[in-house]
Each structure stands twice: as C-alpha cells, then as structure tokens.
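Batch 3, record 17
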Amino acid sequence: MRPLEQSTIDRAAETAPSWLADLRQNGFDYFEKLSMPTGSEDEWRYVNLDFEMAEFGIPDVAGVPLVDESDISVLTDYAGIARLVDGFVVDLFCDVPGVILANLAGNGQDESFFEESLGKLIEPDLDIFAAAHQAFATDGLVLKVGAGVAVDGPIIVDMQVTQADTISFPHLSVVMEANAEASVIVEMRSPDGQRNVVVPRLELSLGDGARLNLVTSQHWGNATTAITHQRMVVGRDATGRLGEIGLGAKLGRLDLNVDLNGDGSNSELVGLYFGEEQQVFDYRVVVNHHGKNTRSDVFLKGAVEDEAESVFTGLLKIWPNATRTSTFETNRNLVLSDGAKAHSVPNLEILCDDVVCGHGSTVGPLEEEHMYYLMSRGLSRERAQRVLIRGFFNEMIQRLPVSGLEDPVRDAVNAKFVKAQAEGRV
Amino acid sequence: MSEWIRIAPLGDLPEGRGVKVDAAGHRIALFRLGEAVYALADRCSHAEASLAEGEVFEDEVECPRHGATFGLEDGQARSLPASKPQQTYEVKITDGDVFLALQEAS
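Prediction for the assembled complex:
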C-alpha cells in the first residue's frame, strides 16, 4: 500500500503527463494545508470522524472483485458496464455508437480527452477529502455521450472496495454533450466488517438540452466510511434527474451540489435512506439557481432505528437574475427507536424576485392515528407498522429516475425493518 | 387435463420471497420455501396489490399494501382486511424445473 505522502505523488508523476502531475500536486498541496474536520465546523457538526487518514493506505492494485449478489445483478438489459475496484477500473464495456466509456489508466483515448473531462467541477480547497481525491485518485472513469445520442438501457458503474485498511478514490465523470440522453446506475459496495475509507467523486456535466438520469445505490459495508462528493452542472434546457438510495456504510456522507446554469434547466433529486445500529447518514444538498426559468425539486425520505442518525442539510439558493425560478425541497424522517436521531435543516436563500419557492420537513415516529386506524381494521401492531413503512418508502422507490432497481430496493428496505422487528429493536 | 407450463429452474427462484411471473395472461406470484414451490394469483383478493412484493412469514404471505395474509398452500385469507381466498395454482417440479398448471387448483 502507498502512504498519503509526497512520495506517492512523486512516484505517480514519473509516468503521468504534466497536466495530471500538476493536478495531483495541486491537490496534495491543499491536502497538506487542510486539516481533518473536528466536528466544530458547521459543515461537519453532526459527524464524528474517529480516524486519522494516515491509518489507511492507498491500494497498489485492485483486489479481487466482489461477485456476490447485489442490486445490479437483476439488471440484464444494460447498454454498458464498468467495474471500479479499490479505485481502479478493472472492467469496461460499452459498444453504443457515439458513446465513449474509458478510463485514464486504460489509455484508450488521447490525453486531451481526459484533461477536458476530469477534475473540473470540484475545487481541492473544499475539504481535506476533496483535496486527497485530487491528489491520490489512481484512475478515472469517463462516460461521454455524444451530441444528440440517446442511449437505450442504463450504463452501470459498479464501485467496490474490497481491501481492509485502505483508502480509495473512485472517480466517475459523466459528460453529456448537447441533447444527449442517458441513464446511469452507480452501485457502491464493500464487505461488512472490513474497516476502510472511500472517497468517491461523481462529476456530471450536462450540455444544452441534455438529459441524464442517474441513481446511486449505496450499500457500503458496515465498517466503511464513505465521503462522497457529487457535482452536477446543467446547461440550457437540460434536465438532470438524480436518485439516491442510502442503505449501507458506517458513515455515509453525500456532499451534492447542483448548478442550474442554463436558462430553462431542471434538476430533481429523489432519495431514500434507512439507518440501523450506529449508522450515520449525512446528506448535504445545495442547488444553485443561476439561469432564468429554472426548476428544481429535492425530495428525500428516510428512517432511522436503534442508535442510527441521519442529517439532511439542504440549501436552495436563487442567485440574482434567476427570475422565474421554481424550486422545492422536502425531507421526511421516521424515527423508529428512542435512541435514533434525525436532523433536518432545509434552507432557502433568495436573492431575486419573481420566484416560487417552498420547503418542508418532518421528523417523528410512525403516526399513532394511522396505527390506530390499521389496527382497528384487524391488523396486529407489527403488521400495521410494516404496512406504514412500506408505504412510506414505496413513494420514493416508484419515483427513482432509472427503473430496474425497484424490487431489490424494496426487498432490502423491508428486510431491514422486519429483522429489527424480529429482534425487538423497534 | 391441465396444461403444464415450464416456468424456471427451481434454483433460479429465490428462497423465501415472491417472484412475479406472467404465464399465458395469468399474473402469478411464486414462492419457494426450500424444495417446495407455491403459486398464488398475484393480485390480492382484497385490493389491487402484488403479493409477489409481499413478505413471507413462515407459511404465509403478507400483502404489501394493506397487510392481509394468505396461506401459501391453500390461498386462504388468514387475516383482515382480506376476506376472500386467493386463487392457487398447481405446481410440479420435474428434473429440477418448475411447472405450473394454469387451470386453477381450487
């Protein structure tokens, strides 16, 4: 394993083109300057980072890929697939004309292709993890959909961590040229009980009139700390629809930032999360409305049981001149055990007139009135709880922007609750 | 005589949860418990919901929408809000393949 030190940067620079070596060095300079969040910073106030980065090393090579059952095994009709193991792309297939699926280490494309597509949307001074990603990412996967190309069937990105005591930096850039259309499913997984850190980055860039549907299905193992940065930039009349399924990880953090730059651009985020034991989910969602006549909708629903904790911090920011903006954010939380916690902080910042904005959030247990009604119809308390939990999540499962994952997600959510019921935890 | 339709190898059916199949226009929910397979009409006799999406508890399936339960073997409604039984279909397993008889078994 390689340490998070200058020597690793120097070694990588020996074989890298100068733009990449410079990018990494720049990332490392910030990595050295920035410090680990302590929890006193507003952005990290609900998160307890109980490790030092130096405890982990960067894998030298990809480990043996996980082949066990996962959500994506039910998907057979896909247009392309890429497997990213421990930060390395190990498998790649897509033969749709007008679509390029390529990785940096694979040398399938000329240098300028990667120089234009990688590391453009996140600044390394964002936090120490973003800096580390820029400095130490070993490979980069790029999906580029050509102008006017519509891809049938989803493109699957299988992101895995397989090695204990590692820190890895899987990277996906999606570049949608004008009027391109595609669907992407990103599966994230690692074995339970294996302590590691993963810092994935998803950079999504939508040209004018492009349409991207992307679902992230997060099933990291119960000892994995995942700090994900995701950015989406949306051009004129383009639409980016995102889905987020949060089920795994010890700590799963998603820092998502959407820039609606083009006039008439749209974004949607539909998400669900379900935490148990001591899991922590930390969602930070910022939508910037820069263009005129833009629309966004953020809708997340989650449940926590045992001592799990969830955080939703949302900011809808309407910049000056972003007239005729329409935007909404909603966060609903079920707290199923006394020891569990859900924090919900939706914010609006409006610097412009002539806009329609709204936000709403709820935190609470299953409603007693609903329980009473169901039990009055002959259902036991346990059964009534299950009916309400299913209904709560089903709304989100049906709204996911890429179809095909409904059954495994529904099964996973139901199984989590049924197990907790059987063990008397809820 | 009922007509047998081959559905899938037994090994392809997941243990302990439902699978929806469409056989000659019939929407059927299949449930595998070990070496046994049970087939019920997929649409709950109480309201529009798919039993294949419901959960299996021992020998019964719970409707995902309103919580009614049905015996897997006989299709009998075991708890409210359903009061009518669920149609069942005859199943046989030959050489590791699951076959369904589309004529209703009860």
